[in-house]
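Protocol step 4 of 6: structure prediction from sequence.
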Amino acid sequence: MRRTAIFIPLLLLTLLLWAMPAHAQDGSAAAYTVQPGDTLLLIAQRFDVPVQLLAQVNDISDVNLIQVGQTLHIPSKAQVREHERDQAVQQPTEATREASLLPEMLQLDRALLTMYGFQGPSRLLGQSAPLWLRTASLPLPLLAINAPDSIVQGRTGIVWITSLLPIPPTGVFQGRELIFIGDGRSEQGYRFFALMPTGALDRPGSKKLKLRLGQVAWERPITILPGQYETQHIVLPASKGGLLAPDKLKAERERLYALWSKISGPPQWTEAFRFPIGEGFARTSPYGSRRSYNGGPVSSFHAGTDWGAPEGTPILAPAPGVIVLAEPLFVRGGAVIIDHGAGVYSNFWHMSRIDVEPGDEVDTGDQLGLVGTTGLSTGAHLHWEIRINTVAVDPMQWTETPLP
């Protein structure tokens, strides 16, 4: 019994060391200011340094306690190498393994292992790492993975991970990096989620979701189902034909994609998004409609949802967030973008008036501006789109149920 009790935390220490980054990104020490939503672990991952060393360099005794605005010194590559040498020297040999004592943070409730079908580690003593232990069908430290079997083109899927370690996994779906956000610790373990955006033009079929935590890898197929989208042929008045100029479209698109690529922190919303316009206005153009302009090829799709409304109708924030853009754009006209956290952005185009400024914090229902027909528009309407890590998704799904 004594050998078993000591082995369990040692196993977790081994897994934790596998998952830790090994090298700093910068050869010299740097400073970083703690932002809202940061944790010491996330900062350590961002700069690719061990979290223990980051805490040591900054004289932090409790890794769970850091303050927004606090300046942290990032260890240099030389410090990381020295730390790794010290860790190697301190690793216990097999002969002294049973005498080792580990911090309380690495202790594991025996009932938790039993719950997931782990029969005990005594039969594994003396075997060389890596130890591919299984809980049900998953290798430790993964305890549970909840992912959809299929996603309709343009909809947002969600994958949930429960792990023994407080370290977010990494993942890729359809070639797009998944951003995992911590959801706190439950009785089962540490929980993380990632949004899985799909575009209206994503090719239907079986795609692989790939996840990794340290040296532990896992994958499964997810089917992209075709959406039911109509085709629209739009004729622009002669006065707005110049808005289709390729160089203008490209410059504006690149600027916006750079903005949508930023992940500012955890979600700011706690419930389903609300409609950004009052009741009684008809949807004139749904998300995903394939589009042709002035008789050209059907080569694009409608990235948002439109409501027909008279010019001057108020436009409201659908969820809490921070204004990151509020200005007239060449193609999209009067524009406002809200950062809702977790890589989710609400975008409003063609506005006749803008009532907010970059940096403003808005709550659900706050007025952003007024409906208009500026930019590439054929009549007064509200255009609302949601982008997740640059991917335009169906905003109506976000009004139907809370995500995640």
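Step 5 (inspection) to follow. Confidence is low (pLDDT under 50) at residues 1-10, 13-28, 91-136.
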